[in-house]
TrEMBL record:
Residues 55-286 form the Mur ligase central domain. Gene3D superfamilies: Mur ligase, C-terminal domain, Mur-like, catalytic domain. This is tetrahydrofolate synthase. Keywords: ATP-binding, Ligase, Magnesium, Metal-binding, Nucleotide-binding. Its EC number is 6.3.2.17. Belongs to the folylpolyglutamate synthase family. It catalyses: (6S)-5,6,7,8-tetrahydrofolyl-(gamma-L-Glu)(n) + L-glutamate + ATP = (6S)-5,6,7,8-tetrahydrofolyl-(gamma-L-Glu)(n+1) + ADP + phosphate + H(+). It comes from Kocuria carniphila.
Length: 456
């Protein structure tokens, strides 16, 4: 039996979080569904308490989930959103109507389901298997919260992969697949084909697939999965997509061809082509859920929903003078997308990067990508780290950066993240004519801590 269950019942979010971490590190996943299925069965199947929009892919999942949520809220629906990881507080992962679940609700529901989770832990132990993991328990908790409220729609983001992800005990009415690229290769496989097969697992019989434009190998796998199980399917660039974009103050104005109609003059308060494409995915998914893909959405509600979207830590402008941007890109694909958005949306001559990366990531490729994508700027790099035990030491990161294309004289190792941020901001502020900017990136944990340090 897990030692955590020998503790007294947690009385605060922090105590619940500590108990969850005692089970396994946040990034520890078990390639199984049966344990989570057993847990939700014992609890009366809360995962079936509302229709589900399920989201997988390599990047853009959280932003797309937040857009879907905002569009559904504009239609006066109660929405439960489950995303990961969190930036600052674990309750961010379980949101009700756009806000993190209340601390009291989080702790109360956890206390109510704990005895049932203990039963599952005992059964797993008897079978020689590890107990429920951090992510498995948190997923079950999310389902229980959403059933308790109750919500009208659940929007679920996959943790890793799809087929055996804990969220996949739910049967999605609509499955969204954002662009698929190489990531988490140690768990999902080191080819696009292997990764796509895992992610295709969230498509369910009788459901509706909404896919981003994909590499042909990925698209073929998704198409074959949908056809095999009788799911409808629509692909960006074929049946729907972005028809136009204009840069605007605080974001962009977009036109989107949806499944049932074309929608114009939509203000999206986020930067970058990738966010416009995420918006097209969200619109198509909501069309599929609310009208089977045949009924146009109300333009006024669409404008309201998209206009209210926020995506903290995703190319977020934290300060304007000098510009300080926060971006939780944590793989090469994400870094390239954000770099395109930075070049398109901002004008400055020097860019100060504050970077922290977790050890399990493709560190060398990420640093090389940063050096290449921002080569047009005068670059200076502050290597730092978050409090995560998985973070690479700043000195080691600096050594790698010097080998990946950064000028060694412009690379600094700073042990304290607050000092790194302060130095980068001060240097940018000292530039004449406001041509210096700061970008804090590399991991979600670094961006989360940066948000707190900057008072966001």
């Amino acid at each position: 039996m897990n030692d955590a269950w020998n503790m007294s019942t947690p009385q605060s979010v922090e105590e619940v979080y500590t108990e969850l971490l005692d089970r396994a590190p946040e990034n520890k996943m078990e390639p199984r569904l049966d344990a989570v299925q057993r847990a939700v069965d014992i609890l009366g199947n809360p995962e079936k308490s509302a229709p589900v929009i399920h989201i997988t892919g390599t990047n853009g999942k959280t932003s797309t989930a937040r857009m879907v949520e905002s569009l559904l809220l504009a239609h006066d629906l109660r929405v439960g959103r489950y995303t990961s990881p969190h930036l600052e507080k674990v309750t961010e992962r379980i949101s009700l109507d756009g806000r993190p679940v209340a601390d009291e609700t989080f702790v109360r529901i956890y206390g109510e389901i704990a005895p049932y989770l203990q039963l599952v832990d005992t059964e797993l132990s008897e079978q020689g298997e590890p107990g429920l993991t951090f992510f498995e328990v948190l997923t079950v908790l999310a389902f229980a919260v959403f059933a308790d409220e109750p919500v009208d729609v659940m929007v679920l983001e996959v943790g890793i992969g799809g087929s055996w992800d804990a969220t996949n005990v739910a049967d999605a009415a609509v499955s969204i697949v954002t662009p698929v690229d190489l990531d988490h290769t140690e768990m999902l496989g080191d080819t696009l084909q292997e990764i796509a097969l895992e992610k295709a697992g969230i498509i369910k019989p009788g459901g509706f697939l909404i896919s981003a434009a994909q590499d042909p190998v990925v698209a073929q796998i998704l198409l074959e999965r949908a056809q095999e199980i009788g799911a409808q399917f629509r692909f960006e660039g074929v049946e729907f997509g972005v028809r136009g974009r204009t840069i605007a103050v605080g974001g962009q104005i977009i036109a989107v061809q949806g499944l049932a109609a074309e929608y114009i003059d939509l203000m999206l308060p986020l930067f970058g082509e990738h966010q416009a494409e995420n918006a097209a995915l969200a619109i198509a998914a909501v069309e599929a859920l609310l009208g089977g893909g045949d009924k146009p959405l109300n333009q006024e509600l669409l404008v309201t929903g998209l206009g209210a979207v926020t995506s903290p830590g995703r190319l977020e402008l934290a300060r304007k003078a000098p510009p300080v941007l926060l971006d939780a890109a944590h793989n090469p694909h994400g870094l390239k997308a954000s770099a395109r958005a930075v070049r398109e949306s901002f004008t400055f001559a020097k860019l100060n990067l504050v970077v922290g990366i977790l050890r399990e990531k493709d560190v060398e490729t990420m640093l090389r990508t940063l050096a290449e994508e921002y080569s047009e700027y005068e670059l200076e790099l502050w290597c730092s780290h978050s409090r995560s035990p998985r973070a690479i030491a700043p000195e080691e990161l600096a050594e790698i950066a010097a080998d990946m294309g950064f000028d060694e004289d412009m690379v600094h190792a700073q042990d304290r993240l607050d000092d790194a941020i302060a130095s980068a901001i001060q240097d940018a502020a000292d530039r004449q004519e406001f041509d210096g900017a700061v970008l804090i990136t590399g991991s979600v944990t670094v961006v989360g801590e940066a948000r707190a340090l900057l008072g966001l």
